[in-house]
Amino acid sequence: MNASTQHSNSIDPAEAAHFGALAADWWDPAGSSAMLHRMNPPRLRYIRERIDAHWHGNDTTLKPLRGRRAIDVGCGAGLLTEPLARMGASVTGIDAAPENIAAARAHAERQGLNIDYRAGGTEQLAAEPFDLVTSMEVIEHVSTPAAFVAALAALLAPDGLMILSTPNRTPLSRLAMISVGEGLGLVPRGTHDWQKFLTPDELTAHIEAAGLRVIDRKGLSFSVGHGFVLSDSLALDYFLTITR
């Protein structure tokens, strides 16, 4: 079984249906995806730092991905995909929920952005290497994390960069994301299954098994005064930067 087929099998239909049902208000900063809107600025800050470090870029350049191909796997309605396009990349966004892709296409068209959105799994993309592969808050929703990572690895160009983010499986993440987040309605109920969260060491093991290596780790924490911020603590949520 090749990696792309494995990814197709790693899609959890229940998870895809859950997020597809949220597609209509994905771009509403006060809607069901409000938490993702708040997470996006530090996400983009970290991604930009890693892009500049990997390709020796200048942080004043507006188009650091000009001439490069990027893919956002599990793109939802495009909250991260659109900024990657604005950074100059030729971008593909792929998601298991057709409703999300429809919302993403409609929003990108209104913004005048040319993004290749596709519904389904990465088996469609097996022969298309990408310079940048991103997948934010996705792996905790798939049925087979090892197969998912292997599929992402198959998409990565030889000199490419991969950036993943996911919640850590800690008492803090259970409290913040499920007890508080879902309990108070800040995140739609049923969004998270704490048992499916991966620790950094567990995710790193999957990455190394796929023939890749982790070159940077960074945490995403929450501050009452500043909201979501980049942090040295990986206890709540974290990023891994990966290369071949």
Commentary on this structure:
It is a single chain. By secondary structure, the chain is α/β, with parallel strands linked by helices. The chain has one domain: Vaccinia Virus protein VP39 (Rossmann fold, 3-Layer(aba) Sandwich). The protein is built from eight helices and eight strands. The protein has helices spanning 3-10, 13-20, 34-54, 81-86, 98-111, 145-155, 171-182, 200-209; strands at residues 69-73, 90-95, 116-119, 130-136, 156-167, 213-223, 227-231, 237-243. It has an eight-stranded mixed β-sheet. Helix 1 (3-10) crosses helix 6 (145-155). The longest helix has 21 residues, at 34-54. It starts with a helix and ends with a strand.
Question: How would you summarize what this structure contains?
Answer:
By secondary structure, the chain is α/β, with parallel strands linked by helices. Helix content is 37%, strand content 23%. The longest helix is centred in the first third of the chain and has 21 residues, at 34-54.
What topology does this entry show?
Blueprint: H1 3-10, H2 13-20, H3 34-54, E1 69-73, H4 81-86, E2 90-95, H5 98-111, E3 116-119, E4 130-136, H6 145-155, E5 156-167, H7 171-182, H8 200-209, E6 213-223, E7 227-231, E8 237-243
Parallel strand pairs: 1-2, 1-4, 2-3, 4-5
Antiparallel strand pairs: 5-8, 6-7, 6-8
